[in-house]
Amino acid sequence: MNSEADANREKRYEDLVLRLQNANLRVTKFRRNLIDLLLEREPFALSVEEMHSLSVSSSPDLVTVYRNVEALTEIGVLDRASDGKGPARYRLNEGNESKLKVSCRQCHATLVSPSPIIFELEKVAREFGYRELIANCEITGYCEDCREERASKM
Asked: Does residue 128 have a pLDDT over 60?
């Protein structure tokens, strides 16, 4: 990685740790390692089982991983994604702004982007008197690499 990318990753890491502190969660070595793991694995969302098997921290038990993932999801540091077929997968959620997520059903690569359509939907909700809105939309499909792989097997 180049130094600019390293600096960006470090800033993102520190911002995420600060969100733990602001939510009055202890910043444990395991939680730091979990954030680091998810940054390292981007753009892929991971299941709790994958986080457990990839964990570099003193081999936490699966219950510990589940509890930490739940706590980080509750405060908005993690974002839960599900394609309805397998286990839920989690990725870092670095903001509370509305966004469009597009995830691959096979490799679980995820792109996150602001979407003008979502902003239009929020505008409608505001017209009905709703405030402090956060809208998220997730679309699943197959990325180009996985689509080619699937086509080659047919």
From this structure: yes
